[in-house]
Write a structure and sequence with these properties.
The chain has four helices and six strands; from the N terminus they run ααβββαβββα. The protein is an alpha+beta fold and 159 residues long. It has a single domain, classed as Beta-Lactamase. The protein has a six-stranded antiparallel sheet, sandwiched between helices. Helix 1 (12-27) runs antiparallel to helix 2 (33-48) and helix 1 packs parallel to helix 4 (142-156). The protein is globular and about 40 Å long. It starts with 11 loop residues before the first helix and ends with a helix.
Length: 159
């Protein structure tokens, strides 16, 4: 596949329908996990202009920063700490309309206002989390949750 994305849609839902098959085609045939996650983050950032998008991978029972796009980020997150640590602990997606209202939120950037974090699971174990931040309040909804969850389920088979 060419490394150029072809996005012609205007609505969020249509963009997901266009980008997810392109991400799958981009990743197919490449065995290197870091290369694949890097391209996934770049594709999501380019398509949706998210403030920050990246992966935290589980290593020694904590989350360690992986490929990302956006400003510098927290390097390590303990289980149960912040939104990412909460998702690591609960194994469930967190949709946070206002990060300042989330108990224990870790402010890697004060510009982040809302967030969605999706676990990548295999055999009910968290392999990594996809973290997406916006500089707008209430920027994520069930469309993001549905599509990012489906993408993460597909990606977890490539770990």
């Amino acid at each position: 596949m060419t490394e150029d994305l072809q996005i012609t849609s205007i609505t969020k839902e249509e963009k997901y329908k266009e980008i997810i098959p392109q991400i799958k085609a981009l990743v197919e045939g490449e065995l290197d996990l870091i290369a694949n996650l890097a391209n996934v983050t770049a594709a999501l950032k380019q398509t949706f202009d998210f403030f920050w998008v990246g992966f935290y991978m589980v290593k020694n029972d904590e989350l360690v920063l992986g490929p990302f796009q956006g400003p510098i980020a927290c390097t390590r997150i303990k289980k149960g700490k912040g939104v990412c640590g909460h998702v690591f602990e609960t194994k469930k997606t967190a949709l946070v309309p206002d990060v300042d209202a989330f108990p224990g939120h870790i402010a890697c950037s004060s510009l982040s206002k809302s967030e969605i974090v999706v676990p990548l699971l295999r055999n009910n174990e968290v392999l990594a989390v996809l973290d997406v931040d916006s500089d707008l309040l209430n920027d994520f909804d069930e469309i993001d949750e549905l599509n990012l969850t489906a993408l993460c389920a597909w990606l977890s088979d490539r770990f």
